[in-house]
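**Protein record**
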Amino acid sequence: MPEDVAPHQLTHSPEPTAVDSWDQSPVSAPLPRQPFERARGALRRYRWLTVAVVAAFALGGFIATRFVKPVYNIQGTIWIQAETPMSQKGGAFRQEELLNSQAWVELLLSSRVADAVVRKLALYVKPADPADSVAFRGFAIADRFVPGKYQLDLDKGSKRWHLQMASGTGVDSGGPADSVGKKIGFRWQLEPAVFEGAGTQKILFTVLTPRETANDYTSNRLTTRLPERSSFLTVSMQDPDPQGSARTINAWMNEYVSVAQQLKRANVVQYSAILAGQLGVAERSLHESENALEGFRVQTITLPGSESSPIAAGVQQTSDPAIKKYFDQKFDYDALRHDREALEKILANPRDSVSVEAALFIPAVSSFPSAKALRDAFEQLNTSRSQLAAARQVFTDEYPTVRDLRNNIDQLETQTIPRLASNLLTQLKERESQYAQRISGASVDLQAIPARTIEEMRLTRQVKVNEQLYNTLKTSYTEAQLSEASATPDVTILDTAVAPLAPLKNTTPRMMFIAVMMGIGAALALALLLDAMDRRIRYPDQVTNDLGLNIAAAIPKFPRGTVNTRSPEQVAHLVESFRSLRMHVSHAASPPITLAISSPQPGDGKSFVSANLAMSFADAGYRTILVDADTRRGLAHEVFGLSLGDGLTDFLSGQSEMGKIIRPTSHERLSFVSCGKRRPNSPELLTSAALPRLVGELRNRYDVVLFDTPPLNAGIDAYAISSAAANLVVVLRAGKTDRRLTAAKLLLADRLPIQIVGAVLNAVQLEAEFQYYGYAAGYGYSDVEEASSTALQTT
């Protein structure tokens, strides 16, 4: 409140008793500081700045949401037909599983599938503005082209176009019928709709390599998920363009199924080709054995004493068992010898794949039970070769599947098959030795039987073995051809990708929330920064902790800057605040009380406090006198409706007596001394011996002597008066008084014989950190409004 207050601002209602609060202790201890009190105070004080900062951030967040596109989740599902025990039992020729579960995912992300999709959909061309995508319909590239950033300038009026690099280098130009960028490998002809309208248009776009685009999709954009023990492969993509992403995923899955079908068919075809080669070898062996038997019979049919000569009666019955036994053993012996020699020849050259496969046509290999492991090894070798040929059509030799197949084939050719063949050779030698011993024992009885009979039986048996092997391979080859004709891929599209209507992530609320929270944080930081840089007194702890003063009272700030006398609550707050100050001074200073009231700077409200404190003491029954000691600008006489007249300076200069300067007021217990005439030497008068003499005489006449001094920064006047009064109350205006100025002035007062009774916080808002300095409403006297009105009329 200003020092030159109106009369109605200084009135109080009279109290029923003179000293009703002497037993109370002064309120001097500071209130405990509450958490976040400073932050709440700063935000409340800079609330409009806070609102502006938060609004600015919110506006920025709203603008940012215009540039952030929603993200959609598009996905499709592929069913993988895994090999099961039930499926292994169906059919004479089983189609084996093409790939394992992990390899299916690798095939989906392989370059064979990715490059094909990128080229079909022209995903390697990316216009800077998605609205220009209509101009790139039918865009394609040759095998050799120049990637980079380009600019296409369209002149719709003249129907001309000009293509140049982003660096400004011209590349090509032409009309609607010309191919755009043919020189650099583009296969692109603009549609007539592009030239519709008038004016010019600039189209910026980037052309990447298909492999670079495919790697971007497989590494960053395309997501696959194939849970363990599951047959459902999910392909998904998160992108702002749902239609384009759905089209890409569907094309990707279709290409994936097509490649899988090709691999499956290639695997079966390769296996069928291997069987066809083996069937040809078996057919040649059968023809050779039949020709050998036929030639042998032609040569021996006319020879005498052959096995076809008639036998005498009775000889057949006696000779057949021995002959049959001998020739069976002889035939087995010769067959074992031939098989052993053939097998030894093959083992001598294990790297010759043709010779190794010919081992299957050796009767001992194809029919002996002990050679089953060797036959299984050959079957496994043929299967691995077919799988290797099919895998090389898609993957490189460094791919794990191809590498494993090569290692398996190499191990079969160089280790497994030679080892099993060696074991069989050892068994053949043992059996050959056994047959030799048996034949030598029976040869005495059968020396007369021609050797050609034995040869004929051997050739006949060779024909039967080759015929049996040929029929077996023929059956397998027929089944392989049927499997080739009915081959189906192991994957099927279960769910196609569909563009969703709702986005996966609606970032607008989140961005707005983040923007508002950032605005609140920035506003709080700015408010705290401004609060930390504020040199004015804002909080009670700045008075108690920083300045080391006790808070004697807190005078509230009223709406419109003055007390509404029709409001009992406002009048009660004002009255109670000065009662608290009066009580504090009464307990801090020894009676009779002499007290100086000052402030660090003008405008803090010291004159207001002085006049109202004097009224409060007078209302309490004290004989009180108020001395206007502001000899430079004192106007306290106007507050009481008095003329300037003789006053303090007149008494100190010896030009007036005590009785002339003391004047009564409207209150019977309150007297007043004006500042007197303005004098240039008033500071010297205040430091003279006359001032202590005046203080002593006033103490003898009155219970309370109050001095309204000039501000502390106005010179030595306030210090001289306070030294004479020995007690000082400092008035601080909340939100106005400079803390550093106050600290500097109080430091000088500490060096003088002055007791600082306390500080009065003036014009405070009784809320937040100051809410505990207020008074509860409803506990005033019922006639306080009437008494206050009476006091106003008599003041």
The chain has 25 helices and 19 strands.
